[in-house]
Amino acid sequence: MIHASLKELAAALAAKSISSVELTRLYLDRIARLNPELNAFITVDEEKSLAAARAADARIAAGQAGPLTGIPIAQKDIFCAEGWRTTCASKMLENFVSPYDATVVVKLEREAGMVSLGKANMDEFAMGSSNETSYFGPVRNPWDRARVPGGSSGGSAAAVAARLAPAATGTDTGGSIRQPAALCNLTGLKPTYGVVSRYGMIAFASSLDQAGPMARSAEDCALLLTAMAGFDAQDSTSLERPAEDYGRCLGQPLKGLKIGLPKEFFGDGCGAEVMAAVQAAIAEYQRLGAEMVEVSLPNSHLAVPAYYVIAPAEASSNLSRFDGVRYGYRAPEYADLNDMYAKTRAQGFGAEVKRRILIGTYVLSHGYYDAYYLQAQRIRRLIADDFARAFARCDVILGPTSPSTAFKQGEKAADPVQMYLSDIYTIAVNLAGLPGMSLPCGFDAQGLPIGMQLIGNYFDEARLLNVAHGYQLATDWHQRIPAGLE
Amino acid sequence: MSQWEVVIGIETHVQLATASKIFSGAATAFGAAPNTQAAPVDLALPGVLPVLNKRAVECAIRFGLAVGAKVAERSVFARKNYFYPDLPKGYQISQFELPVVQGGQIHISVGQGDKAYEKPVRLTRAHLEEDAGKSLHEDFHGKTGIDLNRAGTPLLEIVTEPDMRSADEAVAYARALHALVRWIGICDGNMQEGSFRCDANVSVHRPGTPFGTRREIKNLNSFRFLKEAIEYEIRWQIETLEEGGTIEQATVLFDPASGTTRAMRSKEDAHDYRYFPDPDLLPLVISSEWIERTRAELPELPEAKKQRFMADYGLSAYDATTLTASLEMADYFEAAVAAAGKDQAKLCANWVMVDLAARLNKAGLEIAQAPVSAVQLGGVVARIADGTISNAIAKKVFEALWVGEGASADEIIERQGLKQITDSGAIERLVDEVLAANPANVAEFKAGKEKAFNALVGQVMKAAKGKANPQQVNALLRQKLQAPA
Questions:
Q1: Are residues B382 and B262 in the same domain?
Q2: Is A176 an active-site residue?
């Protein structure tokens, strides 16, 4: 049962061959057994999960079930969920219990009837690519526990990879869904900016943050995205578009599909084994009838520097609300108001968060704003223009997700710039607001998963999912299971 | 040594009369228990997002149209970053580089009588922003309480060019702006509750030299404080300069008790607010259709109404200005004229400006609360005009209406028998009786004492219980007294 797809789980629930309570119990037991080692969850509340499962069973019994009703899911601890401790993996929110639900939580749990298994670990405030910045400790990669699962949605990735949950939510500001999906052999999708509501998702960089599904196949991602997406009047950047069935293209042949290969993604900087796996995937797509087109994204080398201006700038302002006044951590002793702010924030935030607040504060400061922030916004425009030109010549873009497979715990923790470069292929997609996904395409010599990235044009998620699905029908990389977890 | 010239610019925070906050659905009503009108957005809980209140934008459009400004088809909300306990997000959402209202002007009338003059005050801009909460320093035993009910209340900040040259001009501007924002229905104008707060930027210089360094007086919430604060500040700056000192740019507070200003912070510790466009809000786009729709809904504006009152009703500029001081007064006047007849516009104007105004003032009421309706007052004027009652009786009828003794002037005149005596035979009988009963007065008059005539008139009116037509009484009395004996 723990290897079943969401569709198979839904069928089993509908056939009453298993109840949601039984299914939830099964996963809770695995979490109880394996989480102490993997640290994929920050908060588990068996009673809350089982109560939700009982409600789902009642819905199923009443014939009011949807395609996801009763299926368990891990929620990244960045989504506010009423009555759940919501920490964003920070000491600052260690004891914050949300009084309200994020729209994603409303849609997946209250509306679709999914059962939350708990709050998944992550990099603190989603700042990191290894899940080592969490106040609640690092997450272990189920494929090799000495290695990182990627980040920031590292807990979500590890939970699904270790079969502690059939699926999870993630958020992606610069690659935080796609890179951990690649490092943990999952399929993950970052939708077009504005497709999934950001309401109730604790903001890191508002103009880049986007929630999306993390699961074991494109088909599962399509089901989840259909339930997560949609216009939300509570998010002014949410796009007012008709509801979509993101699985509607699944199964369409890939013959004649034009796949763009940006030459900048195939040069130096990418590990040889990753590159070989991606090349093999290209060959597979050619066998499936797709046509390769060389395209260029000439400004892509500017994506990381532009991102590390814009994202910290927005973060420095977004995180100002964590001041110890109304909720969250407050320093136990302080001399006056300014001292309270300084001590609360010095003690409540981790090193990476403070680094980004400092960078962001600096680039927005008087006299530096034009040189950094405005310049970065210009680069952002150039990057979006690059993609627009590329998509005039192809349907989807393909390349590696991450330049390397999972690295060792602690390996890059001391060198922020090396860490930032884990996201060189994913960041441009956020800057342009495009949809992108990662899916498994092989393993390196050490048995670590390799992911490839597919990038679509705006609102082309349904096609993107089908392009991934077509590959997954022809390959079985995505069905491989970490040793010891079969 | 040449004179000092005063230069004043004013920034006004106008609280917009919307039912809910600018970025959340919480109510904006004043005076609720602390923190009972604060939604998750106003509390800045993790993950919440702002959604712009369309009604607040409409208020800004109305204002822009009323002052002849450009209503920007695209404006941008920006974050103004600073830490303060009553600023929940650690930033205020405001507009910085691209405000919604750009330019425009307001005409002010300054002074009275021979010294009266009018001038335009140019506006730089008006932008939408959210108010902060309140820090409560009392009742918490050394701690500070925070009330976030006001956090997120929509404000329109209206900024002038440095066009004012005296405290009187500044007050005239503030009054004109106050009247205008109430007129167009975007603000309740309640200064005690903080709905209309002015900051005055004041500097002095010698004409022909560059402007002096300005100091900004913050948060003036009455016209009197505005005047006193600016006057003090001007005196202080001139004295400082004449004693060889220099003015440092500073933000100052006015202390009404001492009538002085004191520096709050200097330029050195000015904040770097790190403005940047708020990524949670899309640029505000206002279509020309929206602007035109709003224009069609605007009431006739004060200046236009004033001109029309002068042209249509033959009122003087002074009367027309007074009657257009508020939309309520203008509407009252026009309704009274409609009831009394257009020919009686001048008489209606006098009644509204003098009798009604005095009575309201005595009762401490606004015109909207007047117990005598415009139609009732028009009825009184109509009866004066057609000779049914004298002016003196009219005042009695007005007072009777005020205290609710009847529904109309006619009803009161009828019931209390106040109809004027115009029967010349009846008046003549009264005159004869009075002349016969008061030989002393008659003798005095004949000896050339005009005052004695007035006494006789008074006697006749008294005998008539005030109802005799005064013109007829005058004429008959004079005729009888001057007739050869």
A1: no
A2: yes
List of chain B residues whose C-beta atoms are within 8 Å of the C-beta of residue A207: 279
Q: Is residue B250 part of a domain?
A: yes
B286 and B310, same domain (yes or no):
no
Model confidence pLDDT, tens digit, residues B126-174:
999 999 999 888 777 778 899 999 999 999 999 999 999 999 999 999 9
Give me the pLDDT at residue B267, please.
Answer: 61
CB-nearest partner of B47 from A201, A364, A366? A201
A129 is catalytic: no
Q: Is the pLDDT of residue A116 over 60?
A: yes
Q: Check CB contact under 8 Å for A236 and B280.
A: yes
Residue/partner pairs of A441-446 with CB below 8 Å, 24 or more apart: A441/A277, A441/A278, A441/A280, A441/A281, A441/A471, A441/A475, A441/A477, A442/A276, A442/A277, A442/A280, A442/A281, A442/A477, A443/A277, A443/A477, A443/A480, A444/A271, A444/A273, A444/A274, A444/A277, A444/A405, A445/A273, A446/A144, A446/A405
Cβ-based contacts of A361 with chain B (< 8 Å): 274
Return residues 54-113 of A near B (CB < 8 Å): 79-80, 86, 88, 93, 96, 98-100, 102
Residue B107 lies in a domain: yes
The reply to whether A152 belongs to the active site is yes
Contact B47 A200 (CB under 8 A): yes
**Are residues B257 and B126 both part of a single domain?**
yes
- Please give the pLDDT value at position B269: 64
Residue A390 confidence class, pLDDT cut points 50, 70, 90? very high
- Of A152-161, A248-257, B142-151, B201-210, the range with the lowest mean pLDDT is B142-151
| Chain A nearest C-alpha distance from B292 (Å) | 25
CB A191 within 8 A of CB A237: no
**Does A318 have pLDDT greater than 90?**
yes
The answer to whether the CB atoms of A203 and B47 lie below 8 A apart is yes
Question: Across chain A, what does the average pLDDT equal?
Answer: 97
Q: Please tell me whether residues B281 and B311 are part of one structural domain.
A: no
**Residues A470 and A284 sit within 8 Å (Cβ to Cβ):** no
ipTM surpassing 0.90, yes or no?
Answer: yes
Separation CA A95–CA B261 (nearest Å) = 46
* The amino acid at A430: N
Q: Tell me which DSSP letter residue A373 carries.
A: I
Question: What does the pLDDT average to over A440-446?
Answer: 98
Q: Which residues of chain B have pLDDT under 50?
A: 1
Are B48 and A199 a contacting pair at CB < 8 A? yes
Q: Are residues B275 and B309 in the same domain?
A: no
Q: Is residue A172 over pLDDT 70? A: yes
A contact test, residue of B53, B273, B280 with most A CBs within 10 A:
B280
What is the sign of the dihedral through the CA atoms of A342, A346, A349 and A353? positive
Domain of residue B473 covers: 424-482
Residues of B with CB under 8 A from a CB of A: 40, 43-52, 79, 81, 83, 85, 88-91, 146, 272, 274-276, 279-282
pLDDT value of residue A270: 92
